[in-house]
Design a protein that fits this description.
The protein has 219 residues and is mostly beta strands. 9% of the residues lie in helices and 26% in strands. The protein is built from 2 helices and 12 strands. It has helices at residues 50-57, 73-83; strands at residues 28-33, 46-47, 63-65, 68-70, 88-93, 112-114, 131-133, 156-159, 169-172, 180-184, 195-205, 210-216. The strands form 5 sheets. Strands 1-5-2 form a 3-stranded mixed sheet. Strand 11 (195-205) and strand 12 form a beta hairpin. The longest helix has 11 residues, at 73-83. The chain is elongated, with a radius of gyration of 32 Å. The relative contact order is 0.12.
Length: 219
């Protein structure tokens, strides 16, 4: 606008034409819709390629809605966006909770199962109550999971007795709250492995006036 430095009458010509819309970058956009997998309640992350989209939200396979197959429109939209020169994509996944849980899938759509198998034998039956579920809802989270147990080092040791001639005090080292500990009485280094699994819990022992541990069978 002109700057008027003195009083008076001035005439200013104003164009009647509509101002043109300035161009903006179209390399950043956002999509909202269903995908085969991925977060539904987390802050949106920037997706910079189709491979990254598939890693987070699943591949191009068809989706199932009430038992009927449907095209995976979000995957096709993401592919077209990056093929046409798109650089940054925000994806907001939507998901409707199920009416009821089904075999292997809980009501929020996450694949879930009770831990069973090798740990269901003697001394470890209580571990069957451990529930495993997928991080996000969707068919891509339904998969077989295998747990392999590896015995760690011995955590049982001894502290010097409190009094002369007293018995050494048992001491547990390197254990954290809720660690699973295998307790066994071995008569020799080649004895057959037999014992129970227990969960470690820390508590304050009023008798010794210090923190101590107790080991409880799960359940």
């Amino acid at each position: 606008m002109p700057e008027y430095l003195a009083p008076g009458v001035y005439v200013e010509e104003v164009s009647y034409r509509a101002k043109s819309i300035e161009g903006v970058s179209t390399t950043t956009t956002g999509f909202v819709g269903p995908t085969r997998y991925g977060p539904v309640d987390l802050p949106l992350d920037i997706i910079t390629g189709l491979g990254e989209f598939e890693r987070v939200y699943g591949d191009r396979q068809q989706m199932q809605f009430s038992g009927s197959p449907s095209h995976n429109y979000m995957w096709h939209a993401a592919r077209a966006f990056f093929e046409e020169g798109g650089k940054r994509l925000y994806v907001a996944r939507i998901f409707k909770p199920l009416a009821s849980a089904s075999a292997g899938v809980n009501q929020n759509g996450r694949g879930s199962a009770e831990l069973a198998g090798p740990l269901s034998g003697t001394g470890a039956a209580a571990f069957k109550g451990l529930n495993i579920q997928a991080r996000f809802p969707g068919d891509a989270g339904n998969m077989r999971v295998r747990f392999t147990l590896k015995m760690g080092p011995n955590v049982l040791g001894q502290d010097p007795p409190l009094t002369t001639g007293g018995a050494p005090r048992p001491q547990v080292r390197g254990v954290l709250e809720n660690d699973v500990v295998f307790i066994a009485q071995l008569s020799s280094p080649v004895s057959p492995l037999g014992g129970i699994f227990a969960v470690a819990h820390r508590f304050f022992d009023t008798a010794s006036n210090q923190d101590s541990w107790k080991f409880v069978a799960p359940g």
